[in-house]
């Protein structure tokens, strides 16, 4: 199931896009779940990185598309954003929020099919595993491959990622269970390390993104074994 949001303050255009999506899905054997919003504020009210694709009108009365996209990117770096606009100069600014494409109104079904095919192709190419973690005021969808390591501080977890650090509630045991089978290893009581991101071993520490993270004596042999197996036997 591919989850799609349409954010369009012109209800007629919103319904037209929904009709295009339904027709495309039936013709190409895709299963889509579509949610329709009339403003960026409506989309963001309960946003928790639940969509794969967002069709976003640039010009809306209350919260414009560019501002909405910037707020989305604060908690979702992966969703595919396609702008819908009357004027190309607005859509060209999409690089600021890593928009995948744009469509100029009026949008024909032929144009829609071209853009949709391109987006779906890119989504297939970047298939990733994600976890959703609770953060203050909401939730954050994290690509597992982007997590350097998870740090435990009491009943708080800090997810150190390529896009910054995010503080969540929970225990390191819970994080270990969530990331089981995804090339993570518990190096000591306080760290759960992504083996893919280990750059080296020095002074009983794993080096990840320039940080030295302690490996406990009791876990060192098992850690080195797991690392060796992960990288195919070459340290």
Topology:
Blueprint: E1 2-7, H1 11-28, E2 32-37, H2 40-45, E3 53-57, H3 65-73, E4 80-85, H4 88-92, E5 101-104, H5 109-125, E6 130-135, E7 138-143, E8 147-153, E9 156-161, E10 164-169, H6 172-178, E11 184-186, E12 191-194, E13 198-202, E14 205-208, E15 211-214, H7 217-230
Parallel strand pairs: 1-2, 1-3, 3-4, 4-5
Antiparallel strand pairs: 6-7, 8-9, 8-12, 9-10, 11-12, 13-14, 14-15
Describe this structure in words.
With 235 residues, the chain is of the alpha/beta class. It folds into 2 domains: 2-125, Response regulator (Rossmann fold, 3-Layer(aba) Sandwich), CATH 3.40.50.2300; 130-230, Beta Barrel (OB fold (Dihydrolipoamide Acetyltransferase, E2P)), CATH 2.40.50.1020. Helix content is 32%, strand content 33%. It has 7 helices and 15 strands. The strands form 4 sheets. The chain has a 5-stranded parallel β-sheet. A 5-stranded antiparallel β-sheet has the order 10-9-8-12-11, sandwiched between helices. Strands 13-14-15 form a 3-stranded antiparallel β-sheet, with no helix packed on it. A hairpin with a 2-residue loop joins strand 6 (130-135) and strand 7 (138-143). The model has no long low-confidence stretch (mean pLDDT 89).
Main sheet: strands, sense, barrel: 5 strands, parallel
Average pLDDT, to the nearest integer?
Answer: 89
The CATH topology annotation of the largest domain reads as Rossmann fold
Ranges where pLDDT stays below 50 over 5 or more residues in a row are none
CATH architecture of the largest domain: 3-Layer(aba) Sandwich
Structural class: alpha/beta
The CATH class designation of the largest domain is Alpha Beta
Q: Tell me the span between the first and last alpha carbons.
A: 40 Å
The overall number of domains is 2
